[in-house]
Design goal:
The structure is a single chain. By secondary structure, the chain is mostly beta strands. Helices cover about 15% and strands about 40% of the residues. The chain has a single domain, classed as outer membrane lipoprotein receptor (LolB), chain A (Clam). The protein contains 2 helices and 9 strands; from the N terminus they run αββββββαβββ. The protein has a 9-stranded antiparallel beta sheet, covered by helices on one side.
């Protein structure tokens, strides 16, 4: 009676997987910039999602907190185009007009770093740390900055008021 048919093994494996709960991470809590501890910077940016794509210009909000939380919002008021939220161990990118959200637990090893959302995650890092990862070009001077993905040709450039 120790024999289990191959189909039964597969069924048991699938049942075990379902029972352990394979689920996406919970969305990050919305940021309340009215809370104390936030440092806000406003500016303008131009985003080109790929080498031959049309450019979109808009307003940029970059908010940081001493606990490592960052919020980057690119918008054409009254609409947010992209909202990136980064904590010390989680990230979330929202495209509100498309009703699309991408998220992950570890941005350093995430597959999302090879997709168009990567530019916003890297920009969050570069505006605070200033070191571009391999395959990216980060240029900055006293008044402006520019980030380019050498693989796709995507760029975002702009400035932030102090």
């Amino acid at each position: 009676m120790g024999f289990v048919a191959p189909r039964s093994k597969i069924f048991c494996f699938v049942l075990l997987l379902a029972a352990t709960g394979c689920r996406a991470p919970k969305p990050l809590a919305p940021v309340d910039l009215a809370q104390p501890g936030w440092q806000l910077r406003h500016g303008q940016a131009v985003w080109q999602p790929a080498a031959q794509a049309a450019e979109t210009s808009g307003e940029l909000l970059f908010a940081t907190r001493t606990d490592g939380t960052r919020l980057l919002e690119f918008s054409k008021p009254p609409f947010a185009i992209v909202r990136a939220q980064v904590t010390t161990n989680r990230w979330q990118i929202q495209y509100p007009l498309r009703n699309r959200t991408c998220q992950g637990d570890n941005r350093r090893s995430s597959p999302a770093l090879r997709t168009p959302v990567a530019i916003w995650l890297h920009l969050c890092d570069l505006l605070t740390e200033g070191v571009a990862p391999p395959g990216w070009v980060w240029q900055t001077n006293q008044t402006a900055w520019r980030l380019e993905d050498l693989r796709t040709g995507a760029t975002v450039e702009g400035f932030l008021q102090p």
